[in-house]
């Protein structure tokens, strides 16, 4: 059949080949007329760690926005050549980026002779300006007089990307003009900056790309090097509808594993389990440096609008029998801190407290027909610390009194002054003094604020930042 059509096939192929040669020739000629220079090509590629910053990048125009007067100007990286340059990649929607800004400004002030911090965002002037309009009282709002950022960026992000594609992160350029690599905020410490400004970059912990497949799959693909798992895993998930709120622990003696689970539990309770502490559930013993303290408060009377479908979690852990409980709880705490967007920990801090003092007066009795409850002093302190209707500082019993006292309705439901009055009637007092207390601290993921320098305000839901607006 092909032989019968040869007369038609050959002329057709000849024409097609000729046409293709013409196209290739035109394309080759066009490419030769307008070649893409190596420098321009590099501007769209990631710069490898350790390489020199090339001239085209030093001189590329960048739009710098000034928060003080909402103005913009054109700058270049070359303006700061010879200093350590820290490119701080951020966005207005990134809470951890914003929380980190005051710390970066403090570091900038400390090393201003040898370092420059340049925030960089892809967002527009309007978007960034709106952030400062609505955040006047917050940490970043207070930086308005000195805050600057590169706007509408695509060039620097392409040249200095985070291999994992997340923010915040920093790109470091050394005094020698070499790219030192990308790092995350927790690694950019005062010590590291001091090393960089001294010309020593040996301690820069570079970010690395995540594996392209799950680690267990990757390990299994290595064949003889594969070792079977020993039955340890943890899992954290959001609310599971229809599962109720059970908790429990079971042992599988055949497999040699132990399993514990917490279904649909408030996040503060899970932190309490992980820390082996009741403080996350006690409002006057927690410091809530988060955007909203009330949303985490699951107390049904103090916060009737609590949303369990949003803020309750499920957690489980399976581990070999005999694993130390401390290790299991440490892993649980690490999972909660890494995966929930907030970080919980126990700290010791001097806090305003209400101290029950005195020796008591056995002759004191409640008024006739007064509805009272007789309690020992430990129970009185516990009851006051559990008050959900008012904000009351931590109450501590320092009397050593082992008898019982009476509490009437005015003390159980009234103000601190009412409690003091009832105690004074029985030979005790309620004195306001500072004490060093263990406190539960909850912060947004990368919050690095100096807790000792913060002004705190007590609310029904816990201590919050002193400027208010965070309840």
Q: What is the correct CATH architecture of the largest domain?
A: 3-Layer(aba) Sandwich
Helicity, as a percent range: 25-40%
Structural class: alpha+beta
**Which radius of gyration do the C-alpha atoms yield?**
32 Å
Strand order of the largest sheet: 4-3-6-7
Taking all residues together, what is the mean pLDDT? 80
Sheet with the most strands? 4 strands, mixed
CATH homologous superfamily annotation of the largest domain: Glutaredoxin
Total number of distinct structural domains: 3
Question: And the CATH topology of the largest domain?
Answer: Glutaredoxin
| Poorly predicted parts | 1-42, 211-220, 222-230
Strand content: 25-35%
Q: How many DSSP-defined strands?
A: 19
| C-alpha geometry | globular
Total number of helices: 14
CATH class label of the largest domain: Alpha Beta
Kindly report how far apart the N and C termini lie: 86 Å
